[in-house]
Amino acid sequence: MGHFPLLYLFRHGATVCQGLLVGSLDLPLSEKGRKQCRRWRAALRGRTFTAAWSSPLARARESAGIILSAHSGNTALVEPVPELREISLGEWEGASKDELRQRCAAEWAARGRDLAGYAPPGGESFAGLAARVLPAFDALLKHSAAHAHSLVVAHQAVNRVILARLLKLPLDRVLEIPQGHAALTILELRPDGVRLLRRSLAGRLRQ
Question: Parallel, antiparallel, or unpaired for β 6-11 and 193-200?
Answer without folding.
Answer: unpaired
